[in-house]
Amino acid sequence: MRVRVNLLPTKRETKVLDLDEHATVEGAIRAIGLLPDGWLAVRRHEPLPLDETLEDDDEIDLISVVSGG
Fold first, then answer.
1. With helix as H, strand as E and coil as C, how does 2-59 read?
2. Nearest C-alpha neighbor of 34 from the set 63, 56, 1
3. What gap in Å lies between CA 37 and CA 25, rounded to an integer?
4. What does the pLDDT profile of the chain (69 residues) look like in tens digits?
5. Structural domains of the chain, ranges and CATH numbers in brackets
6. Is 66 helix (H, G, I), strand (E, B) or coil?
7. Residue 63: strand, helix, or coil
8. For a Cys-Cys bond, which of 3, 27, 40, 52 suits 23, CB 3.0-4.6 Å?
9. Model's pTM, two decimal places?
């Protein structure tokens, strides 16, 4: 299945991934080579858990998590 992933706000780029059927948000993040704990996934303005199953032609935004003091 094909999924479009928008990396925001720091990278501002879009990746198109070909993933296995029943791939999860975590799988998509790892397919890009990123660590899941550093990103918040959003689809149509709704946050997604890491175990959410993606669908063919999904488009999700990955927003980098910033922490510090």
1. EEEEEEECCCCEEEEEECCCCCEHHHHHHHHCCCHHHEEEEECCEEECCCCECCCCCE
2. 63
3. 12
4. 999 999 998 778 999 999 999 999 999 999 999 999 999 999 999 999 999 999 999 999 999 988 776
5. 2-64 (3.10.20.90)
6. coil
7. strand
8. 27
9. 0.90
